[in-house]
């Protein structure tokens, strides 16, 4: 008598939105197994998407089947087993090699025959096509949303996501703090640490109650969202939301950031006497000169030139 694993799966992703809940799947599959007189050795419940390989419980179940613990799987539908080509191909291979003798679905006909495996391949292909189409439709919807000037992500600090209008609105209290942070930094008298301290004093801290990191401050000051635009997929788009700062103030802040981020010019040493003429008597490498300054306690300053081999 064949032994079966009962496998139930549901994820929080969009592709499983209309699928029966875990509890409903288990109830239906238990009843189906009892009516068909199928012997279940273990029930496996997995809450993870099947659109890409790597489900730990699913992989463990197939490994146990390869080890001979069971020879069949009971599931609600083939799309509960796989929505990607890797997992679907692995199941087909186990059927071809006889490791899986039977697959039982109350909503799908299957027999381990060439016709049955052909229909199972089609079912797996339809499941993958559904996921791929859903992803493409989602991307297309996001692109259209961007064209309308609607930011397709969560609102940055200083704004709120309005679930009623499905838009981004200004947080009246925090937007004032953000504007003041821009104004402080634009004056050129405050460091990034000072801005972080200012935000902390205004109650804008991390979830752990600590001052925000300067990288977070830079992210805020460089975000074009605050002057009415937004960045999406590496490009800046004009938004429909209300700006918090003017474009002029934003540009002043960017100039201040760029000025302070420029590397200091390295000191260029002038050529020393004898350089290029002398060689090391040990390794025959060139001799170079290096200036040193010595400050004495009595206030005198002396300048020395030290010569050494360039060999390191």
TrEMBL record:
Signal peptide: none annotated. Residues 3-149 form the Resolvase/invertase-type recombinase catalytic domain. InterPro entries: DNA_bind_recomb_sf (IPR038109), DNA_bind_recombinase_dom (IPR011109), Resolv_N (IPR006119), Resolvase-like_N_sf (IPR036162), SSR_resolvase (IPR050639). GO terms for molecular function: DNA binding; DNA strand exchange activity. Residues 156-263 form the Recombinase domain. CDD domains: Ser_Recombinase (cd00338). This is Recombinase domain-containing protein. It comes from Candidatus Collierbacteria bacterium CG10_big_fil_rev_8_21_14_0_10_44_9. The lineage of its organism: Bacteria, Candidatus Collieribacteriota.
């Amino acid at each position: 008598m064949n032994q079966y694993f009962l496998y139930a799966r549901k994820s929080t992703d969009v592709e499983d939105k209309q699928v029966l809940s875990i509890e409903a799947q288990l109830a239906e599959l238990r009843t189906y197994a009892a009516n068909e007189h199928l012997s279940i050795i273990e029930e496996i419940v997995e809450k993870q998407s099947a659109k890409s390989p790597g489900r730990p419980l699913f992989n463990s179940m197939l490994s146990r089947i390869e080890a001979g613990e069971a020879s069949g799987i009971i599931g609600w539908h083939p799309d509960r087993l796989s929505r990607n080509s890797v997992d679907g191909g692995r199941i087909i291979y186990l059927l071809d090699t006889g490791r899986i003798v039977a697959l039982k679905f109350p909503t799908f006909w299957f027999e381990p025959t060439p016709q049955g495996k052909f229909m199972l391949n089609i079912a797996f292909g339809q499941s993958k096509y559904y996921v791929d189409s859903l992803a493409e439709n989602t991307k297309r919807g996001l692109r259209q949303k961007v064209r309308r000037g609607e930011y397709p992500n969560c609102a940055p600090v200083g704004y709120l996501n309005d679930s009623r209008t499905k838009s981004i609105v200004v947080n009246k209290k925090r937007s004032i703090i953000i504007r003041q942070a821009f104004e402080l930094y634009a004056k050129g008298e405050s460091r990034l640490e000072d801005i972080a301290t200012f935000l902390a004093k205004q109650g804008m801290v991390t979830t752990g109650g600590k001052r925000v990191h300067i990288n977070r401050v830079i992210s805020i000051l460089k975000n074009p969202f605050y002057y009415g635009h937004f960045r999406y997929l590496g490009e800046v788009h004009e938004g429909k939301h209300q700006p918090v700062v003017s474009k002029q103030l934003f540009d002043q802040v960017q100039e201040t950031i760029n000025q302070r981020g420029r590397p200091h010019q390295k000191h260029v040493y002038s050529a020393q006497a004898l350089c290029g003429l002398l060689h090391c008597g040990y390794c025959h490498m060139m001799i170079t000169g290096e200036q040193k300054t010595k400050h004495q306690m009595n206030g005198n300053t002396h300048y020395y030139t030290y010569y050494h081999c360039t060999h390191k």
